[in-house]
Amino acid sequence: MATMTIAKAINEGLRASLTSNPKSLLMGEDIGHLGGVYRVTDGLIKEFGDERVVDTPLAESGIVGTAIGLALRGYSPVCEIQFDGFVFPAFNQITTQLAKIHSRSLGKLTVPVVIRIPYGGGIGSIEHHSESPEALFAHTAGLRIISPSNAHDAYWMIQKAIECQDPVIFFEPKRRYWLKGEVDVQNPGLSEDPFKAHVVREGTDATIVAYGPLVPVALAAANAAMEDGRSIEVVDLRSISPVDFDTVEASVKKTGRLIVAHEAPTFGGIGGEIAARISERAFLHLEAPVIRVGGFHMPYPVAKVEEDYLPDIDKILEALDRSLAY
Amino acid sequence: MGSTQLPPGTEETLAATTAAAAAPGEPVEMVQLLGPDGKLGTDPVFSDYAKRIDPEKLRVFYADMARIRRFDQEATALQRQGELALWVPLTGQEAAQIGSGHASQRQDYIFPTYREHGVALVRNVDLAELLKQFRGVSNGGWDPRENNFHLYTLVLAAQTLHAVGYAMGIQRDQKLAAAADSTDPKAAVIAYFGDGASSEGDVHESMVFAASYEAPVVFFCQNNHWAISVPTEVQTKVPLANRAKGYGFPGIRVDGNDVIAVHAVTEWALEHAREGRGPVLIEAYTYRVGAHTTADDPTKYRESAEEAAWREKDPLDRLEKYLRAEGLADEAFFDQVKADGHELAKYVRSTTHGLEVPDIRDAFANVYAEQHPLIAEELAWFEEYSAGFESDEEAAN
C-alpha cells in the first residue's frame, strides 16, 4: 500500500503501462518536458524518451487523428487533451472515426486509443476549463467512457483503459487531482474491471449515484443525512459508457429511492439515461421518482458564481429530502 | 538526416523546378513527360525515374487504366439501374491513380478517400467488394490488412491524419528494426485527398504533424478542379502544391493525366519518404470528367467546353498514341484490353447482384471489440422481439 494523490496515481499507472507494454505511448500538448499542465505525466519523458512521451503540435484533431493511425499500425496511444473544453476540435475524429473503425471494418481493425481529459469545475478557472462533456461522447456507440474518483481506481483504471481493445475516454476529475488515497499497486482488487460500478457506502433509505469529482460530495451528503437518521447508499458509477445498470438496479431495489448527481447539465445528461433505465428495471420498487442533481442548462458559468451551479452537499440533501418526502 | 539513394543534385534541381520555389499566385511549373500528343518529353529529375518503366510496365498501366474506366462505366450503369445507391465516378483521373498506385510497394500503406478505385485495383482489392459500400451492404467491404489498402473514408480529410499517425508508427517500427539489423524493406504511406478536402483543417494538421516528425508520408492530392459544384479557385488562391513550402517539405505539381510522370514523381516521393527524408506533397493536376457522384448534375455549374478541353488531354488516349507510335503495343493488345474490360464488367455485374445482405446481428457484433452489456441487452431484446414475429407466423400457418 502506498498513499498518493490521484494525479500521482495516474502518473504511476501510465508508468506501469509504458513499462509493461512497449507499444504504448503518450501524446499531447505540453506532456513531455513540462509534464502536463497538471504534471500528470511528470518525469515520464526522462524515463521513456520523446518517442514514447510525445510533445505534439497544438492541434487536438491532429492528436487524436494521428493516434488512430498509430493504433492501426499496432500501437496503443494515450492522448491527453489539455482541458475538457478543448476536446471539440477533435470531436470529429473521435465520433466519426475512432468510434466507428471497428464497426465499419466488421471487426477486422481495432483502435485501442485512450483519450485522457481533465474535466469538471470547482477550480475557479476561466471559460472552457471547467466543463463536463461526457454525455456528448456517451451518445456515440463504439466509445467507452470511464472516470475514477479515487487514487486506487485512478492507478488501475488507466492501465485497464490502455489494455482495452476499444477506444476509451478517460475523464480525470481535475479538482480531485490532489486528493490522496491508499493505492495497492500489487493488487487491483475490485478495480480489476473498470466498467463496473462500486457501492462505496451501504445504506437502506436511498441511493445516490455519482462519478468522478462528485463521489466525495455524495459521500459527504450521505454522512450529513446520517445525522438526520437517514441511511444512504452511495454508488460510484466509475463507468459512464457502458453504465453498470445491474449494480444501480440492485441498490435501488434495496433502497427504493434514487438520486443521480453529476456536474454536467441535467438536460440530456447521463442522469436522465439512468433514470429512464431504472424506471424500466425497478419501477415497482421505486418509492419516488428518480431525481437528478446537476448543472443548469447554460454555458458553464463564470468562476465567481460556479458554486451556485455545481452540485454540492446541500443540493444533494435537498434532492434526498424531496425523494424521501414521497 | 541519413544517407539517400537519390541522384546527386536532385534536391537542388527540385528546389528550382517544383512548386515549392514559385511565389504565391504565380504560375507553377508542372512536371509532364507524356504530353496529350503522345510524345515523351524530358525532365531534369524525373526522366531518370521514367526510364525505370519498361514497355511491359507501360502496357500494364494502359490495361489498368482501361479496366478501371470500364469498371467505372459499369458501376455507373449499375447505379442507374437501381443496383447501387450511389456511385462516385473516377473517369478522367485514371492516370493519377494507376500511376501513383503502381509506384507504391507491397509494404507501403494506402489511405484512400472514396474515389480511389484505380488505386484499389492496383492494390488487388476485389472490385466487387468495393461496391458493397455503394450497394448498402457494408460500410467497408474488404480487409485493409490484406493489401495494405485502408477502407474508404467519407468524412473528408480525416484519413490524412490517420496516414500521418500510421507513418509515425512505421518510423518507430523501423528504428526497432534497424536496431535488430532487420532486412525488411522500408515502408511509407500515401494519403489521398482532393482539392476540395484540401480546405479541411485536418489536412493542415496532418501536414504540421508530418513535417514536425518527418513522417514517411506522401500527400497525394488529386486536383480534379471541382468539389461537387465549387471550383478549385474557391479552395485556394495559390497552386495547391505551393502549400508544401509553408510546411517545409517539397511540393510538386504533376500532370495528373500523364501516367508516366505521375509514376515517376510518386516513386521519387515514396523513396524520399522511405529513406527518412520526410513528407512530400504531390498535386496531381487532373479533371473529374464526369459528375461528383451519380446524384450530381455538372451542367448546372460548369461549361461543357471546359469538359471538352479536358477530354483532349485524356490519359488513356495519350498513352495509346505513345504505345502505338513506339510500336510497343499492337492491335491484338488493345483488343485484349477491351475484352478484359468486358470480362471485368461482367464479373462486377454478376457479383453485385449476388452480394449478400448482412444480418443486423453482425452490426451488434462489431460495435465493440470486447464484451459490452448494453449491446448484449439490446441484442437480447431484438432476438426476443424477432422471435415474436416467428411464432406469429407459425400460429398463422
Automatic annotation (TrEMBL), chain A:
Cofactors, names only = thiamine diphosphate
Keywords, sorted A to Z: Oxidoreductase
Q: Which GO terms describe its molecular function?
A: branched-chain 2-oxo acid dehydrogenase activity; magnesium ion binding
UniProt xrefs under InterPro entries: THDP-binding (IPR029061), Transketo_C/PFOR_II (IPR009014), Transketolase-like_Pyr-bd (IPR005475), Transketolase_C (IPR033248)
First-tier enzyme category under EC: oxidoreductase
The record, for Pfam families, names: Transket_pyr, Transketolase_C
What highest taxon heads this organism's lineage?
Bacteria
Q: Keyword RNA-binding: yes or no?
A: no
Query: Can the keyword DNA damage be found in this entry's annotation?
Result: no
Q: Where is the Transketolase-like pyrimidine-binding domain?
A: 4-179
**What EC designation does it have?**
1.2.4.4
- GO BP of this protein: branched-chain amino acid catabolic process; response to nutrient
Name the SMART domains for this protein: Transket_pyr (SM00861)
Kindly give the SUPFAM superfamilies that the UniProt entry links to this protein.
Answer: Thiamin diphosphate-binding fold (THDP-binding), TK C-terminal domain-like
Full protein name: 3-methyl-2-oxobutanoate dehydrogenase (2-methylpropanoyl-transferring)
Q: Highest lineage ranks of the organism?
A: Bacteria, Bacillati, Actinomycetota, Actinomycetes, Micrococcales
UniProtKB/TrEMBL annotation, chain B:
Which InterPro entries did the record assign? Alpha-ketoacid_DH_E1_comp, DH_E1, PdhA/BkdA, THDP-binding
Q: Where is the signal peptide?
A: none
Would you say which domain of life the source belongs to?
Bacteria
Q: Which residues form a coiled coil?
A: none
Which residue ranges traverse the bilayer? Answer: none
Q: Choose any GO biological process term that the UniProt entry carries and state it.
A: branched-chain amino acid catabolic process
Alphabetically, the GO molecular function entries are: magnesium ion binding; oxidoreductase activity, acting on the aldehyde or oxo group of donors, disulfide as acceptor
Task: List, alphabetically, the Pfam families matched.
Answer: E1_dh
User: Domain Dehydrogenase E1 component, which positions?
Assistant: 65-338
Report keywords, A-Z: Oxidoreductase, Pyruvate, Thiamine pyrophosphate
CDD domains annotated for this entry?
TPP_E1_PDC_ADC_BCADC (cd02000)
Q: Which cofactor does it need?
A: thiamine diphosphate
Q: What PANTHER family would the database entry show?
A: 2-OXOISOVALERATE DEHYDROGENASE SUBUNIT ALPHA, MITOCHONDRIAL
This chain belongs to the protein called Pyruvate dehydrogenase (Acetyl-transferring) E1 component subunit alpha
> What is the source species?
Paenarthrobacter nitroguajacolicus (Arthrobacter nitroguajacolicus)
**Taxonomic lineage of the native organism:** Bacteria, Bacillati, Actinomycetota, Actinomycetes, Micrococcales
